[in-house]
Structures are given as structure tokens and as C-alpha cells.
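Name: DUF423 domain-containing protein
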Amino acid sequence: THMSSKASAAAIVAAAASSSVWWKVGAVSGAAAVAFGAFGAHALQSRVHDPKRIKTWETAAHYQLVHSVALLAAPFARRPNVVGGLLTAGVVLFSGSLYTLVLTDQPKFGMITVRRALCRPSSPHVEHAPESRFHVARGRPCVCRGMACLFALNNCE
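Structure predicted for DUF423 domain-containing protein:
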């Protein structure tokens, strides 16, 4: 019985995943994130000589990969299209604007990413760091601890 429950759970997961567009979007996005990460680690350094811009590219690829993994779970959400759509929009707006910022060196593209801070430096969920991978509005760096400040929208500026 234990083996049949594992098999039926695996069948349910396989059926939900194969029939969901979000599973496919997550897989393609994940593959692209790996490709962008490899490009950033190897080819980008011959085109971009600023270490901050290289680090920004790495951050974009990292967040795209994290969102891609989350997209794989979207078919199991109560509202998969809402979850999948929001995660996809997050990848396009956040990572896409960072990739564009690095390739063009036009700060206006970075404004898409940092227009509204998800956490403010005075928040109890934030610790200050001199070199942060998470940049917030007006150039003040912070690092969020856990997911608390990402969902505490009352901490937005």
C-alpha cells in the first residue's frame, strides 16, 4: 500500500505538471537562467568591465532561477494562473530590467527594478550591509532576512 500511494502521488504530480503551461514556462525560464548565468560568468566579462555590473547580472540570473523553481510549483497552487502570471511578471520586470541595465549601461532601466523598495532600511527585517546584492530605492542598500520583508508591504517606502 505504501508503494502504491507513492506511485499515485507521483502520477498526480506528473499529470498536473505535464498539463500546466506554468511547468513549461518554469522549465524554459530555468534553462534560460542557467544560460544567462553561464554567459555572465564567461562571455560578459569581455564586454563589461565594471565589477558592479557583472554582479548585477549574477543577481538577475540568480533571482530568475529562484523564480523558475517557484514556477514549477505554480500548477499546485489554488490559483495557478495568478501565481504563474505574477512570478513570470516578476522575472520579466526584475531580471529583465537588470539584464538590460547591464548590457546598455543606462541607469533608467534600473529604475524599473528599484522604483519601489520592498523593505526600508529602518525595518526590523533589514540589516545594513556595505555591499548588498539587493539594492533599494535611492541607492540605500539593504539585505532582507528571510521572506518577512518581501511580504511586509507596509514596510514599503
